[in-house]
């Protein structure tokens, strides 16, 4: 009897606590909407010169998943929720189907983020002519770099904002887009693609199978970046044994994006103690830093510093008014941003071509015509003739991009889909999801390179097909990446009849990557 009484008392206490917690949650949710409306008032007063329509609906009413206190909508990605962090691109697509062309969700501490899916809204954001466009940086990387002022003066080209960003970008990266670099790049790429082919020939098994084909493609990208940015060869495609420095750089650049993703979307315990992901991020940063600080210091001390290196390195080394620490970190950012991105895009491109038999035939026809012998040296003039393969690249980046969206922080208030969106809001232009909608591209889910050929201009929306971003903040490596995709793919397809063991699966690791290991058969074509 006494036991039952005790049990009853406990039950009442539990019920009272639960009611209290539920009340707190409800009252939080009620105030949350108003808090969202107030959150950016200060910014708006400061920057407000925007185009808010008089009848715009309040920010708080933008549809989206239910936030909970502190964790916002992060619960959607936990064991309770329907989404997975390694499928964030699919989660963002699902939100579009559930809530419509504008969606607001809340990240940790209920920080609001607005996803835009409508092509006109996306155009409005990306067309806004900003002197210093703001793209949010990688928080954990910023945190780490700020903790090492001995090494880093700024947080690097990718993370820095405002005047400081403009200073680095204009002083250090303009050579990347020069025509002279284009010729130099094509020459290096032809040599490196031959080395890749030789390595594959040497290492495939009796059935012509290469396991973990992605490693070969990433090694190739690393070698390309090293040759073009530093004017040096690394040996990442050496047969049999690879130099330890190449292996370390491969490890670091491969893992950097993955841990950036984990530290960005997981709970930020790393701010308080070094978590496993944070320690790995620091390890990757240290490896890349050690290699590049040695190279830069060696080059700066060399008498030939300005004569023999690559034009990109020359520009970086001789830039006036830039601290040596900024020169090192900018090189690091260029290398880190240039390997997996281009490697993934090349893998998806090959897969998209080979999975569509009619397109594969057209690509082979063009290659056999432009490069009659597999050993033909590729020149910039020959590249201009590969029009169909170029169209395949654009289409592949539309359907299977490496960066599925472009993020910006609004510098003034806007009205999107009838909702007021204040200055200071983080908006994510969901270009990939929008590109897969029938209203924007006919047969949007089919791989149709023809839509990008000159004869068919009707389907082009300049602000949807932006795989390298837009405006002053767009990717400085675009030219290198496009040339690399073109030449490596052309050379591989000219030499081999390639087939993938199974369809590539897209996984989100900050970038969209194909899930490895990728097993591929590469048989000689002749
Ligand atoms: C297929 C390959 C690549 C893709 C799809 C890609 C895509 C992008 C995108 C979408 C951005 C953000 C642009 C924006 O916010 O408007 C970006 C930025 C950047 N990319 Fe690339 N990229 C690729 C290759 C490269 C290469 C080869 C390099 C280096 C040589 C590079 C270096 C960078 C850097 C340093 C930034 C930051 C620029 C800044 O904030 O000023 N990327 N890239």
From TrEMBL:
<dbReference type="InterPro" id="IPR017972">
    <property type="entry name" value="Cyt_P450_CS"/>
</dbReference>
<dbReference type="InterPro" id="IPR002401">
    <property type="entry name" value="Cyt_P450_E_grp-I"/>
</dbReference>
<dbReference type="Pfam" id="PF00067">
    <property type="entry name" value="p450"/>
</dbReference>
<keyword id="KW-0349">Heme</keyword>
<keyword id="KW-0503">Monooxygenase</keyword>
<keyword id="KW-0408">Iron</keyword>
<comment type="similarity">
    <text>Belongs to the cytochrome P450 family.</text>
</comment>
<protein>
    <submittedName>
        <fullName>Cytochrome P450 314 family</fullName>
    </submittedName>
</protein>
<keyword id="KW-0479">Metal-binding</keyword>
<dbReference type="InterPro" id="IPR001128">
    <property type="entry name" value="Cyt_P450"/>
</dbReference>
<dbReference type="InterPro" id="IPR036396">
    <property type="entry name" value="Cyt_P450_sf"/>
</dbReference>
<dbReference type="InterPro" id="IPR050479">
    <property type="entry name" value="CYP11_CYP27_families"/>
</dbReference>
<dbReference type="GO" id="GO:0005506">
    <property type="term" value="F:iron ion binding"/>
</dbReference>
<feature type="binding site" description="axial binding residue">
    <location>
        <position position="475"/>
    </location>
    <ligand>
        <name>heme</name>
    </ligand>
</feature>
<keyword id="KW-0560">Oxidoreductase</keyword>
<dbReference type="GO" id="GO:0020037">
    <property type="term" value="F:heme binding"/>
</dbReference>
<dbReference type="GO" id="GO:0004497">
    <property type="term" value="F:monooxygenase activity"/>
</dbReference>
<dbReference type="GO" id="GO:0016705">
    <property type="term" value="F:oxidoreductase activity, acting on paired donors, with incorporation or reduction of molecular oxygen"/>
</dbReference>
